[in-house]
Specification:
It is a single chain. The chain is 35% helix and 21% strand. The protein has five helices and six strands. A six-stranded antiparallel β-sheet has the order 2-3-1-4-5-6. The protein is globular and about 55 Å long.
C-alpha cells in the first residue's frame, strides 16, 4: 500500500510532496525550513497561488512542491513534519494532496478527500494517511470534512475581521 502512494507521488519522475497552506500569508517559507525529519529536498518550489478568492487572499495561500530524487524514500514522516512546519506560529490549515488536484471550489471537499493524503490545523497534530484504500473510505472523508470545517472557521473569522475593520 505504501508502494501505491509512492507510485502516485512520483508520476513525473522524482517523488513529489505537494503541500498547501491557507493562513500563513502569501510569503513562502525559505527552503531551509523544509530540511525536516532528517531529509533535505532535492528541489523546492514554493509559490503563492494566483487568482485567490478574496476570503483566501486575506489569509494567504502558498503551495509547496517538495521533490526528492530518491524514489525509494518513505515520506510519511516527512509529510507530517512539513504539515506541522507550515502551520507553526500562525492560525492556518494545511494539507498534502496529489499533483494536479487543486481547485479553489473544491478545497478539502468530500469529492477531493481521496486526493488528500495529509492535513494539519494549527494546534493539532498532523494526520497523514499512506493507504490508498483508506483514502477512499468513509472515515477518511469524515476526517477531511473536519479539516474543511476548520478551514471554513478560519475563512469566516477572517471575513468578520475584515468587515469590522471597514466599519471602524
Amino acid at each position: 500500500m505504501a508502494g501505491e502512494i509512492r507510485d502516485l507521488l512520483c508520476w513525473r519522475g522524482p517523488i513529489s510532496v505537494n503541500v498547501f497552506v491557507i493562513g500563513s500569508g502569501n510569503t513562502p517559507l525559505p527552503k531551509e525550513a523544509f530540511h525536516l525529519a532528517g531529509m533535505v529536498p532535492d528541489a523546492f518550489l514554493p509559490f503563492p497561488l494566483l487568482g485567490q478568492p478574496e476570503a483566501i487572499e486575506r489569509l494567504g495561500l502558498v503551495s509547496y512542491d517538495i521533490d526528492f530524487d530518491d524514489v525509494s524514500l518513505d515520506l510519511r514522516e516527512y509529510t507530517r513534519a512539513a504539515l506541522r512546519r507550515v502551520c507553526a506560529n500562525t492560525r492556518a490549515v494545511a494539507w498534502a494532496a496529489f499533483e494536479g488536484t487543486f481547485h479553489y471550489d473544491e478545497l478539502l471537499t468530500d469529492q477531493m478527500a481521496h486526493q488528500v493524503y495529509g492535513y494539519c490545523t494549527t494546534g493539532a497534530e498532523p494526520v497523514v494517511e499512506w493507504d490508498t484504500a483508506a483514502l477512499r473510505g468513509e472515515e477518511w472523508r469524515r476526517r477531511i470534512a473536519e479539516a474543511r470545517a476548520a478551514l471554513d472557521a478560519l475563512l469566516s473569522a477572517s471575513q468578520i475581521r475584515a468587515r469590522k475593520s471597514r466599519t471602524d
